Amino acid sequence: MTSGILSRTYTKPFSMPRRLEFLGIGAGAAAVLLLATGIWADWTRVLGNSLVLFIFILTLGLGSLFLVTLEYTVNATWSVPFRRISENLAALVPASLILALPMLLGVERLFEWMHPSPGDAVLAGKSGYLNLPFFMIRFALFFTAWIVGYRILVVGSRRQDQTTGSGFSLTASRFSPVFMILLVITITFAAFDWIMSLVPHWYSSIFGIYLLVSCMVAGVALTTFVAVLLKLKRYLPSEIDSDHFYNLGALLFALNTAWAYIAFAQFLLIWYANLPGETIWYAARAHNGWGIVSWLLILAHFSVPFVALLNRSAKTDLKRLRWVSLWVLGAHGLDMYWLITPSIRTSGSPFTWQELWLPFAAAAVVLVTWRWAATRAALIPVSDPKLESSLHFHL
Amino acid sequence: MSEGEQERFEIVGAIAVYGAPDELAEGVVKAREAGFTRLDAVSPYPLHGIDRLLGKGPSRLGYIAAAAGLTATILAKTAQWWVSAVDYPLNIGGNPLFALPAFVPVTFELMVLFASLTTVIAMLAVFNGLPRYRSALLRSTFIRQLTCNRYALVVDAGDKRFRADTILEDLSGPDVEAVELLRREKPSLYYRERILSVPFLVLILAVAIFSSTATRLAFRYGGELPLYNFMKHQTRLAAQAPGQSSALIRPVEGTVARGFLPYAYKGRPDEAGTNLVNTLPITAANLARGRGRYTVFCQPCHGRLADGRGTLTAAFPKAPTLHSKKVREWSDGRIFAVLTEGQNLMPNWEAQVSRDDRWLTIHYLRVLQRSQHAPEQDLP
What we know:
The complex is a heterodimer of chains A (395) and B (380). Chain A is 71% helix and 0% strand.
């Protein structure tokens, strides 16, 4: 262990403050209570909401994992002190395996392609891909790839804390580009499988990229939020200053704008061609109260963060970064809800009290996973060979 | 320095040359502590954070970029609205004339173009004062190293703390490799520092006015030498002017053009139905001709089988089937009246389809009707 760079305070494993533990328990209890009151009312609704929760948590985890691979791939220096935070948050990927259970059990009820109407030529043509055995095989393949990547990058990084030398960093920077390509492919097909196939007649070739960018926005937003909180509560060394946070803010700004770009590209092509087979997806998101939600999404996921982060000083202002990153996380949650729910429930109002458990559940899952992962090692990769130069990083 | 040089040159500043960026940064801090305010740094590549050390506030370039971007946004939206929805409304695929989503890409591109060009120009021309004929720095002994592996602190002579006789000692230090005064030729009528100075702009304007006036006058009085026989000089008929050279010659009174027999039953289709007879023989060649006319003029609305399932979009009114009992029992002359005069939403085809072709089209229509309503004797 290379000591001397950092004081002992920052090389100890993170200890979870009691208040946060209570917060996690409280949020979990609230989620369970709220869910229990609504669970008998509408079973399909609960299934759909569970799918939203699963995808939301998964995108947070995959985005964080993506950020880790990105650092190794481009050999970034500034992000090294934040990498352990992303690594800990990447534990949301294995955690979301549990959250996927409702989807796997309710596959019959959720997915129309499980019971196509006879004479449906389109679904008959897609049945080679959209069938239960292959669906399950793909599910297993995706999670195997992600968890193997998680073990190599995250668990390996924790192990590196106890060693010296750059052996692991070299392995990781060789593995990361390959894993990044794998991530892009698996996320694309996961988006096709778990979200796009809810409306099996509809397709959009940009859909995978949409979810990929969403993952990255979510990962960066969550990492930023946690890093800012830790910095404000003095869990991070003083060498990490506004120059480091500027990069997180800039990345959040760029990725959020990229999300808007991709989302608009998908909408523009479908709107302009105006073919019934393609517009059904947006039609479901324009009627029955969903039109307001769609406008709200543009406002919350693009306009507000764009204006809030445009200024240079906004990216170094920790207080502003804290609420903007939390705001983007909320907008991402709305995005996932908007992406999934209109495909499952075609009538009724977009939100009722039966959706109230989702934010509580998400908060509880993130807190529990964070406690599980972060208490295992220091909050800074203390033996990373680039740590010293990264602590002295200046714009 | 000789007396003559003293007169021609003036001291505009001084530089201290360093071997490393960190040393430069320390030099900047020291100079600021010593009370210098008008400082600049020269390095072969951008040094992050040096602007903060130099005490320069945040750049105002961003506001210029934002203003340019906003201007382009408004310009693009207004121009597209004016062109597509007001001045020349054009229905594209049934989309609204003011198609906001479709206007976004152009708006975006124009915004990027305006913002980036304005930013580059503003950065060079406004903030950096470029282009210049020459800078005092270019006369420095160290300019070659400064673009390669040396770093310099520049003190402007306008600084309150600047004393020409002591500045070299003021800037010296353990890390400083060299110090030097920066000199510049004194401005004269023939020598200017900035290219974009008033005399230069006036000169450009004068040259532009003179050359275009001279060209115009030369053409006006020296005679135009056409490069080739322009269309406007060629002999031609005036398209719509009456008289001898008109291209529109009215037919002689009491005559009709060949193939354009006047239609005698205008407004009386039933009379046409009883009196007009299809005299053209039914041959393979005639049916092929009729089929061709049908395909061009009838099929888009009435469909390939004349069953009313045309290829036009739903935005267009649906044409009826031609297999109805009414149409089947109509005489050829009655159908001819419809083709000639139109009916309801159907336009008249008198001008586009010749008289004979209309009769042949009717022959082919009978073939289509018989294909869908074959009498018993047709069955094998």
